[in-house]
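It is worth pausing here to work through a concrete case rather than discussing structure prediction in the abstract. The textbook approach is simple: state the sequence, then state the predicted structure, then interpret. We follow exactly that order.
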Amino acid sequence: MKKIRNVSMTNQVMIATVFGVVVGIIFQEKVESLKVIGDLFLRLIQMSVVVLIMGAVIEAVGSLAAKELGKIGLKVFIWFMGSTILAAVIGVLFGLLIQPGKGIKVNGFEAENIKASTQSLQEIIVDFVPKNIIEAMAQANMIQVIIFSLLFGLALSLIKDKDKNAILLDVVSAFNNVILKMVTLIMKVAPIGIFCLIAPVIGTTGIGVLITLMKFLLTLGISAFLFLIVWLLITALYCKVSVKKLAQNMWRMSVVAFTTTSSAITLPIQIEDGRDKLGISDRISKLVMPLGMTLNSNGLAMFLSLAIVTFAQFYNIQMGIGELIKAVLLSTLACLGTVVVPGGGLVALATVMPMLGLPTESIALLAGIDWFSGMFRTVLNVDADTTVALIIAADENELDYDVFNM
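Step two, the predicted structure:
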């Protein structure tokens, strides 16, 4: 028992993942009932996500002077857009190179109940702002929650500077500490929860669909791996740190992201490791990471651009330079305000497919492997958000190199 307790949480999660795959293959549909426990674990984490994000953004913005927020905000936006566009471009390039859409044959597939967005660009922009913050919180509309939190934090910052009164900011900070502690306690049962999530997925889906679409998954995995290497090198050079140490310090959050397929669930671990392993100040991490979770979806951008190229190959549709550029831009824009829990990728795909003249019913081809492609997407999302926070911290002289090199 003592030896088990000495195994790190990261290793426990990895063991649980492998064990879940093996049990799912052996027992197949018999383990479907375990999904209840896995769903309970997800809900325990998800129930605090909205208030965690809201509190983190309010505290981060409220702690800043107004002019600091404008300067940092511009830097964050530039790095977010740069990383997302790079991910989408790599997805297109590897789609053209490996051609995963050639030879995919699935007979009798039916479309899932996924509807593309019918909103105009104007309606999408207006929908960024909540009519009712309570309703936005109840619906877990992250982009609306963040817009409210930014304005609330800005107002709090102005009042703090003018009246020299930080009582409410202290209350928000204390509340955030309680939420983080609660999530930390829940994460102690993460190996059990993750095992009970993965085993039923493998058991009910089977490895047949994986074999059929293995080429797409393999292409996505190679693209994600290359992006991470390039992006970590860029970050290490910019921040003047060891790329090997950077990868080591981000290992735990990457494993949690890979196994849960949820940026929201990984966020508490991300903030904790950002402070304790990477040396990022709380002020920067609590501002950049929640924003990145909603606005910077590198993994989704890569998934969408690769899926577009794959389906074009599947239907023998030739894509010129103009269509490929459009695919990159649409994949980048579709990431704004995307759902941060498993399944959001299919909804985003249903939104961009009609804009390029591709049939939405073909989305069903990827629905069966959405969980597995979500593993790669989430790792890219989480790691890119963290590295941007590291870059901003280095720029603002709020990166503790002693903590990073411990």
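Step three, interpretation. The chain has one domain: 2-404. DSSP finds 22 helices and no strands in the chain.
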